[in-house]
Design brief:
By secondary structure, this protein is an alpha+beta fold. The chain is 44% helix and 27% strand. The protein has three helices and seven strands. Strands 1-2-3-4-5-6-7 form a seven-stranded antiparallel β-sheet, with helices on one face. The radius of gyration is 22 Å and the shape is elongated.
Length: 179
């Protein structure tokens, strides 16, 4: 591998880092806003159903008529966990429900996996960066980062696999938990 090619690859990586900085900053703001809204929506949902919220954040209890108690844990509301940006865990008796969310990441081209000799891999990487990723980031900026939030839960299915259920709102997700 020539030094010139390695330098070219390093320059491209530096350019991508520079172009990605505003994207990362916007995504961070969008994740913060999503986490705040989800927390507000969860608390509003329970209070609208007649629950009293007690305790200290990030772990609170929602109590209904002094007897029924649901634990709500916001500890993992922020931070990347298992392919999501965060989640809220609810516990009632032996039932656990986790509502995860992810903020849309845009439509950046994906390099996929590269194979071949180290020289071939480097050439493919340089080609991808030059022809696809850098032009995309230069023309798109942050315009593809909508801030849209996907809400979902993972539940075990009959074969002990995991099924992902998607929701349009916190209310819809919590209605499935309560039913």
């Amino acid at each position: 591998m020539s030094l010139a090619q390695k330098m070219k690859l390093q320059d491209l990586k530096a350019k991508i880092e520079e172009l990605n900085t505003p994207r990362r900053e916007l995504l961070t703001k969008q994740m913060e806003a999503a986490a705040k809204k989800i927390q507000q929506d969860v608390l509003a949902y329970f209070t609208s159903k007649g629950f009293i919220i007690n305790g200290q954040m990030p772990k609170v209890k929602a109590t209904y008529n002094g007897g029924l108690e649901t634990s709500i844990d916001f500890s993992n509301l922020k931070g990347n966990f298992f392919g999501c940006d965060g989640g809220v865990e609810f516990k009632y008796e032996n039932k656990t429900f986790v509502l995860d969310y992810q903020v849309a990441r845009g439509n950046s081209p994906d390099r996929g996996s590269l194979w071949g000799s180290p020289e071939e891999v480097m050439q493919k990487e340089i080609k991808f960066y030059e022809e696809e990723l850098v032009p995309y980031l230069q023309t798109t900026g942050v315009s593809d980062l909508s801030g849209d939030v996907s809400l979902y839960s993972r539940v075990k299915n009959a074969t002990n696999g995991v099924t992902t259920l998607k929701y349009h709102s916190v209310e819809e997700a919590l209605d499935t938990f309560i039913d």
